[in-house]
């Protein structure tokens, strides 16, 4: 989620619009840092879905889990909309109200809508993976990764898909790791080396594209979740951390349980993006800082946004979710 917030620092702030400073000066030191800083958002999405798939492929969808998810989405939608209407950043219209009421609105690049639809499809994915043989699972993965990632990472070879489709591919990857454990998946040093090497190669590919084709092609190999390095870095780092044997830690679980809330808050709407990145943080206005100051400002900003959103979501859980579902459980038991 930190990678996703850093990605939004770059892509939602005006830094890479047509006449944005990173497009006008793509090879300046500040631009090269920001290209690197913001290039991992789609990789973060893959990591998020790998974790989801690893646990959900042996779990079940329940009404209570669904209500927790949908209540969280709707609470932030209406609360933040109300704040921005009151402050003048949003205008109340019937059309905008309809979009708020609809649980999904568009399933192209809207992560929340796509994740909700995909989440509801998990029981059907589980039927598929539990009734395939291991060899059939391998063949299906080879087919889909070959089409979406290998071919999709060739310049001028266009792949049209939405996130609902791609989430299913990532789900197949993580469910294979969970259902068919293999000694190679447990080689911590191997996956650590692969992770570091793939990160370095991804950065080199970005630098090469910047110098050859300018800013418009800079992040081609991580520009979407299906691209080669977005997949390789996510899968290798997932296997690396899975094998580290990190013991239970309540603080990790507390933060991890609110990371989706970070997304719902800081990427809530166009009004939020305008207020946060262009007005409050003013990423464009701080572009010309000395490189060290820019590094400190951007990383500090991302960490603060992440921390504040985590605290907001923990407050939501304590003040709204826990009391409601305590009442819900009591009513259900009766």
Low-confidence stretches: none
Largest sheet, in brief, is: none
Number of helices, counting only DSSP H or I runs of 4 residues or more: 15
The radius of gyration over CA amounts to 21 Å
Head-to-tail CA distance between termini: 39 Å
Q: Strand-and-helix sequence, N→C?
A: HHHHHHHHHHHHHHH
The count of DSSP E runs of length 2 or more, i.e. the number of strands, is 0
| Secondary structure: helix percent | over 70%
Structural class: mainly alpha
Strand content: under 5%
Shape: globular
Instruction: Please identify the oligomeric state.
Output: single chain
User: Whole-number average pLDDT?
Assistant: 92
Describe the fold and architecture.
The chain is an all-alpha fold and about 325 residues long. The two termini are about 40 Å apart. The mean pLDDT is about 90. The protein has helices spanning about 1-10, 20-25, 30-35, 40-55, 65-85, 95-100, 110-130, 135-150, 165-180, 190-215, 230-245, 250-255, 260-265, 270-280, 290-334. Helix content is about 70%, strand content about 0%. It has 15 helices and no strands. The radius of gyration is 21 Å and the shape is globular.
